[in-house]
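Study this:
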Amino acid sequence: MTVHSDGPGSGLEAVRRAGIETTGIEIIDESERTAKPSDLFWPWFAANVSVFGISYGSFILGFGISWWQATMVAVLGIVISFAACGLVAIAGKRGSAPTMILSRAPFGVVGQKVPGVFSWLISIGWETFLAIMATLATATVFRELGWSSGDAVKVIAMIVVAGLIVAASVAGYHIIMRMQSVLTWLTGIATIGYIVLTVDEIDLDAVTSMPNGSGQAVIGAFVMVMTGFGFGWINIAADWSRYQRRSTPGVQIVLWNTIAGALAPVVLVLYGILLAGSSPDLSAGIALDPIGTLATVLPTWYLVPFLVASVLALVSGAVLGIYSSGLTLLSLGVRIPRPTAAFIDGVILTIGTVYVVFFAESFLEPFQSFLITLGVPIAAWAGIVIADLALRRSDYDEEALFDPAGRYGAVNWGAIATMAVASVVGWGLVVNNYATEASWNNWQGYLLEPLNLGTWVEDGSYWDGNWAYANLGVLLAFAIGFVVTLVAQRSRVRQQESV
């Protein structure tokens, strides 16, 4: 028999009575589970419609591959990564709780804090980079308009952007969702306008003449796309499916998540490949200031609407990042008011923005380093969660998700050890693309030389060998997490479901 702890000081009842905002981590009542699978389209579509997606065309071509290889990488990387989100989203309808709460089933109620910390970090990281892009884009558009330029504009833009993000996150979930519904249309219209106004910049001869790259470079670009799109959302993928009816087929959850998440990015990235492949100067500028550089090819009259729509879309995405990081903090047991959580996130966001905007020499390199570094443990976590979900035949015991003495236990050391080993192996097979300016991160790739996959060139501070930049560690971390869990945790899951 499962032991529940329903007193006022512990368990699910304690969460419901806590003196902080608990909406989002508490179990959704059966009467509120009325959403249809098609309802998943708008939140996923809205979260991924941004002109920033066009910038990925430059990022992908930066691996030295041809346009058709880049096209294949974009389509497969985006679709597969969002399909993985769809698999995690199945847990939402089977447990009606946020992703990190459901993660307690494979890791234990207390053990979930380990992946929870990484989830919080990646949410903080994403919202910070969105704020960085909004700040840089504002300064660049102001310069193009001839209004002003320099550090003063960047400081003002940073203050305004950070203020909007924190203020919106303090306002609460329902206001954020209403804001998203409006910004979806603004961003979509602005993006269509951008494509119409810049299509004459495309030089098909230049694009199709790019030579093929190595297979290792293709894999490296594929991993970068996966971590930049679906895997960037996978740690919160069940948050939007928890209002689905229990009877909803899992295949429909996966299908709508995949279509909605991948539709806009596929179109935008493919257009970005054509645009970046047509102009080496434009492609190089995107690495320093993605959205601002994209604005330089626009007619002056469109710069203001483009700036407003683009910055508000980035702010909107950052707000969702803060909201999700707040849910993760609650799942970790942190007892602070929501305004305090927003303030803490805002301070971290501002510090990160200041560093990249005023001190970093490039945007692309730290961005890729961030994606790869946190992408490894998140990939391991995703493999564990998806395998655990595949092993389960019953819905989650919702009360036990909040009870360390329940069927899921306090700590599943097997899952934690699997994530640790997968992460350690994974980090050994990825490299830091920010080697000169961020040498503190050069510890990565320590398995490449022992496995004859690459050689570190000390004088040049780079890796020699195509496999070094394939970043196999992300894929391997996911595979280790999935396979080990599928084999080693089968009896644990069967025992839990027999109680």
Remarks:
- Confidence is low (pLDDT under 50) at residues 1-10, 15-24.
